Amino acid sequence: MSVFTIISPTYNRPELLSKMIDSVLSQDFTDWELIIVDDSTNSETEKVIRKYLKDARITYLKNHKNIGAPLSRNRGLDAATGKWITFLDDDDILYGDNILTTVYKTINLDWPWYVFRRVGHTGENLTIINTTLKHYNWTRDCLFGNALRGDAAHFIKKSLIGSTRNSDEMRSEWRFWYELAKKSNFKFIDLVVQKGGYLEDGLMSTYVPKMNSIYLKQHLFEVTRHIDTWKYVPKALLRILLAYTTYYQFKQKLESEK
Looking at the whole model, is its pTM more than 0.85? Predict the structure, then answer.
């Protein structure tokens, strides 16, 4: 059993994957395992990664068919043995050779969930803190609130995650964090841990306003199911209205450019 399990889904980007792996191998903290879940549609990733498999801390899993990032992360979670879980996509790198050491010294072992800063490929801040709180609840303060916005790096105790997994429903990655938020709040540490961001050819879908409305409808359906989340219904309805307005404006713009 290692201290950290790093789960990395990858898709047809062997060059970027190599940079990610190198950022993990360069760490001065050595008690980690890296689980790479290959969702690629070709064999190039496997060819590149073979040179790394001599390191026993690296596990390589190849999907038999393309299943997407969320379910690939599930495969990583099923195989994880570390006390702490974090996710590092193939277009991300760890921010400095001593970052795992710093994280380990920073986290309180009695608290199960920590969130750290991420920056983009050009150094721009991806984690926006609008309200400083001792503890944050992901549903209240991130999904429906504005206390913490944007992308962030998570370190979560494996014992907290338990059987919680990503859904294969379209654009439902949020449900994983939503279910975790029922179990625990998280603490935010103002430390940059990862450098990365979304690239157009990654596993995540590029933004399309109509697709965003699907995501928001999921939110509305979920919050109407439980009395304690009814307070979020007005905001969920407003977001759907704005999403459809944006979609039709987007559609009209495309038609006018033809």
Answer: yes
